[in-house]
Amino acid sequence: MKSAASNSAHLTRNAAEEMPAGELKRKLLLAESENRALRVKLGLDPTAPDIHLGHTVVLQKLREFQDAGHKVVLIVGDQTARVGDPSGRSETRPVLTGAEILANAQTYEAQAALILDQDPARYELRFNSEWLDMSMDDLLGLVRTTTVAQLLEREDFANRYKSGEPISILELLYPLMQGYDSVAVQSDVELGGTDQTFNILLGRDIQRHYGVPEQAVLTMPILPGIDGVDKMSKTKGNEIAITAAPDEMFGRTMRLPDEAMESWFHLLAVAAPPQGTAPREAKASLAKALVERFHGEEAASAAEAQFNSQFVAHEVPDDVELFSIAADGEQVHLPSVLAEAFGISRSEARRLLEQGGVKVDGAQIAPEALDISCEALEGAIVQIGRRRFKKFKIVR
After folding, report:
1. Strand-pair category, 17-19 with 39-44
2. Can you tell me the distance from the alpha carbon of 226 to that of 246, in angstroms, rounded to the nearest whole number?
3. pTM for this entry
4. pLDDT (tens digit, 9 = 90+) per residue, 244-300?
5. Could you tell me the end-to-end alpha-carbon distance of the chain, in angstroms, rounded to an integer?
6. Is the peptide bond before 221 cis (omega within 30 degrees of 0)?
7. Which stretches make up the RNA-binding S4 domain (predicted)?
């Protein structure tokens, strides 16, 4: 069995920060002396239908804790999702309906199972509505733990307050609600992205107020999206869902800028190719490894072959014409867009769809897919027939 010191070094090796320094090692030693597993918490708000690769950076770290013998407590934030995490936001988030939250929560539970060990000795799934649907007395007790001045220390709140942007009372409650999650599940360790640092540290203060031992904090770096710039997010349209079809997952990974590859290899725990490997080959090895992780070896090989037949075998010209689409909503009507982009009629576009003659980044579009999300088209190579291509750009 590994010592607490070696376990701590392994678990913190690719983390952004451990707070307080040395606290995880102390927790590991204490758990060892008490002959128990640590309770390691992660909260995810079901604000979108899919878990994406950005979420897996922290989920993979949770799996490492499980493999070291500890118990993961995954909290689906069905109650906090009603507020919306304001971290990193310059404006108030839109509020989801109860039905949307419930539907998303169900998919999160199923998708997390692709990464985490479901053994009850190593895994506990909780919904924070269990304890956050609280009485007024309990709510007043929670808000007494924190001052407005403390909350305004957060950079995003401070910037919005300074610029006169509105901050709702509901948003100010969010960090307190997340902190109370740690009290409710008695977490020893909380994980999160670096954008969660304030919330997680506030959780320590709230635990102390309720007389609960304070958790160690481990933050993980943020995975950039396929644009290589912004945090991976469905809102930005730069995400890859872990349930994406193999061809889509491979193709979207191949859009990643070369300069962002190193962070993807590191944060997604994919073995990097030997030094000197050409960027396109390195990116293909990354794409194949990710497809294999979620779909298996056979699907990964098929996705690579499909991509190569489209792009490496020069079936796609190097100078594909850029076509800009003006879009107001989240989706566009594909026959209309194809008609405008390629100078064909809408009926011909529908016929091409019915015959399987439309591809996006090499993946065939289903005949019934008359509407398609803008994020799926952003930066994509769209092909109709055998030799007609356009690269699409969404303009808001």
Report:
1. unpaired
2. 16
3. 0.72
4. 999 999 999 998 988 999 999 999 989 999 888 888 899 999 999 999 999 999 999
5. 56
6. no
7. 332-395
Interatomic CA distance for residues 78 and 80, integer angstroms: 6
Nearest to 250 by CA among 174, 207, 309: 309
Task: Name which of 73, 85, 58, 53 is nearest 194 in CA terms.
Answer: 58
Largest CA distance in the chain: 74
The pLDDT tens digits of the residues spanning 1-48 come to 567 767 888 899 889 999 999 999 999 999 999 999 999 999 988 877
CA distance 5 to 32: 11
E strands, the chain, are 17-19, 39-44, 71-76, 123-127, 189-193, 216-220, 322-326, 331-333, 358-360, 363-364, 371-373, 381-384, 388-395
Three-state secondary-structure class, residue 220:
strand
Asked whether the beta carbons of 358 and 383 are under 8 A apart, the reply is: yes
Both structure tokens of 346: 């809408």
Quickly state the pLDDT bin for 318 (edges 50, 70, 90): low
Q: What is the DSSP letter of 83?
A: T
Which three-class secondary structure state does DSSP give residue 76?
Answer: strand
Burial of residue 244 (number of CB atoms within 10 Å: 0-12, 13-18, 19+): buried
DSSP code of 391? E
> Which residues face 325 on adjacent strands?
394
Q: In sequence order, what are the residues at sequence separation of 6 or more whose Cβ sits closer than 8 angstroms to the Cβ of residue 368?
A: none
Beta bridge partners of residue 196, listed in sequence order = none
Six token digits for residue 78: 């069905």
Q: Are 241 and 228 in contact (CB under 8 A)?
A: no
Q: Which domains does the chain show, CATH number per domain?
A: 4-220 (3.40.50.620), 244-313 (no CATH), 318-396 (3.10.290.10)
Angle between helices 4-12 and 23-33 (to 10 degrees): 140
